[in-house]
Amino acid sequence: MDGERKIHISEGVPLNSTEKPADLGVHINTTFSVASSKKIRLLFILNFLFSVICMILSCSVAFYYWNEMVSMRKQMDMIRDQFLMQSLGSDKTQASPLVSYQRPLPGSDIRQPRMDNSKDEDTVLNPRRYFVENLGEDMLLVDSTRKSPRRENLPVHDLSLTSKEPLVVQFNGAIRETNMGTQSIVGPWVRDSEISTRNSETKIELSNNSNYFTIKEGGLYVVYAQIVYLTQSPNCYFIWARQTGQNPRLLSTCASGDDSSQRPLEKSQISCAVQTVARLYKGDIVNIAQREQNRTLWLRPGYSYFGFIKLSS
């Protein structure tokens, strides 16, 4: 038939084939490039060099601080030796503290309160005499009765039975919290009897309004103070000393910055502490003056205090 068309199906692809298609082959290239291996090697070298540098810096800092500690120890030993030689070189004959201790009777073990009578301080036992034996870095006190003939040329010194207690006077704030307003003199204060030397009120007197201190015994003093503020603003106070009819002398100044931590006001305590060495004369009136107005102060024990330590006459 002319209209017939013949359709030929290719023999290469069977229609009813039941064979499964072949599995696909997958190839993963796991070879690192040469550039990547060079980067890893470079990073390893840099890390190693950084570790070595850090170790060298740490050792240098440790050696520096160790050297400073050794130098400081040598200076302290030198100062101690000089102080001991000056003490032993004085011409005053004093009793010795190196006497045998006699155990008190069982009935006297009760602690006695501190009294004002000072007759016990004047009690001196029979002193022993000692000489100084140089042992290189250290010095040794040896009983003179055990002095060998080869040490006959060494000087013999007497040591006091009891060392004189230094004059220490400390005052604590007498109220918990106060606002200065337009007032400049910081106070009131109260004497700390636990720290102050016995009979210290005869050496440094507190005024009737508890704001001023009168020096009754002149000398070289260490003057120290601390004020705690409840504020977020800067603060400054001055320590003054003056004689009647004379211009005041500025002993020291303490200033603090502001509180930028954005804490609430009830937790914004700022402390300002200062210490100095000053020559005070008999009759000097000492006080602390606040520069800023309307400052709230915590005049509590352990927070705000003012004190004197006498070094020499």
TrEMBL record:
Localization in the cell: Secreted
Keywords attached to this entry: Cytokine, Disulfide bond, Glycoprotein, Membrane, Secreted, Transmembrane, Transmembrane helix
InterPro entries on file: TNF_dom (IPR006052), TNF_Ligand_Superfamily (IPR051748), Tumour_necrosis_fac-like_dom (IPR008983)
Chain intervals for the UniProt region annotation (Disordered): 99-119
Signal peptide: none
Residue intervals passing through the bilayer: 42-66
THD domain mapped to chain residues: 167-311
Similarity section: Belongs to the tumor necrosis factor family.
UniProt protein name: THD domain-containing protein
